[in-house]
Amino acid sequence: MNVKRLLFALLLISSFHGYSQQVFTLLSNLEYPRALCLDNGQVYFTETQGALDPFGGRVSLLQYDIGSAQTDTLVYQLICGNTILVTPSGGLYLGSEIGPAVGDQGWVSQYVPSGNKDSVVTTVDIATHDMRMNSFGDVLLIGQSFSSTAKSIQRFDGGDFTSPPTILQTGKGLANSIVQHDSTVYYSNSNGIYFFGPDGVEYVLSAQPAGSIDYYKGYIYYTNIPTGTIGRVNIVSGSNTIVVSGLNDPVNLRIDTANGSLYFLEAGTSSGQYFDGTLKVVDISYLHIGVEEMSSVPPLSIYPNPVTDGVLTIANAPTDADITITDIQGREVHRTHNTKSGVIDVSTLNEGIYILHIYDREGQSVQHILIQ
Hints:
CATH architecture of the largest domain: 6 Propeller
Number of strands: 31
Strand order of the largest sheet: 1-24-23-22
Largest sheet: 4 strands, antiparallel
Helix content: under 10%
């Protein structure tokens, strides 16, 4: 690598500290959205305002199709609304507490498409707050309790909710979220982010208070509701960086690892009585470009983004560049060779999120665009 390329890489990396990337709003006016799950181009989430507010509101399960930007309500009166899990076989499970939000009883329910409802499949000895499936096909469940002997983190081997779970950790208090990478389990609570391996010995990754967490390429991404931020912690060094700030109660996040898109929910504001929640997405893929992968192509100047009139302009694209647009599943939907104008007609594309690729002899630039 030559000196110029190395300096460019170091400059780009250093700019990531405290960086706030452009955020796209996919849905607004949600009623205290809470649970979130991604699966095969679909975003599943819950609204829980009706369970929290004596004046009513929705307690529902919804499905947002990333490709078409269409939203469908799957269940209008949910039993469980804290967490969502989709299994490889297509089963959709939800979790919640029984009674108090912090306690030693919880439910796991399953979505029943034929009845537009969820039906309880098992009870658990913790107020269920989050569920994730690991790469071995096991379901990890985490919950909240003030009891020192609470069964805080449980594992259902093979995703079988009919068999008793293995208890992995006890007495973890207000535990919020969980994710596993390889053989290491990470979890969060109001005091920080922790991890443990097969031996169960626990270590502190960060003293950063965290709500929802997810793993992506050597980092734990997290939400922090009190500060209204989304950040990430390096799993080796423990260094912390804020990625997005200025949010209204970011309650949940999930990462589409195929393309580096981070989806998150804002619960809303007290002044809006939490009828002003949102579903948003931010591109984090560029944060993980290795030094050798970095292109000498300068950052793209693209406008407008979101595209609302069917015309996209790339102000600084090389005139000899090949330009392709793919959908969120990686399918090519547009290809052209750049002209001096840098204007691309995208009026034939449906509303949704797309990925813009620009290739020239110096390398490749990639950016997400939103067409409305």
